[in-house]
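Incident log, structure service

09:12 report received: a user says their structure output differs between two submissions of the same chain.
09:20 pulled the input from the user's history:
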Amino acid sequence: MEKLNLSIKNFLNNNGLEKGVNQQKAITVWSTVVGEKIATNTKPEFVEFGVLTVKTKNSTWRNELQFKKKDIIKNLNKELGQNTIKELRFI
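09:34 re-ran on a clean worker, output below:
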């Protein structure tokens, strides 16, 4: 199994796809990183060029999350293992 993991990782690296895969992984780990309360009031939509777009329940949540943006980006990148997410966009 480890050979397969290494082969996939090498394939992604050699074809410049690793960054894109890590960006998409941000959607998967969103609820773990931000916690249950934020996760129930938000939904990560997509990642493009290092910008994670997150749909919020309402404008109050949008405003609140603007204040937490830097911390969320830091924690996402800590979970992803590199500087993958550069910006958050709340809609």
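09:41 both user submissions now match this output. Likely a transient worker issue. Closing.
09:42 reviewer note: Residues 23 and 47 are 6 Å apart (CA to CA). The chain has a mean pLDDT of 85.
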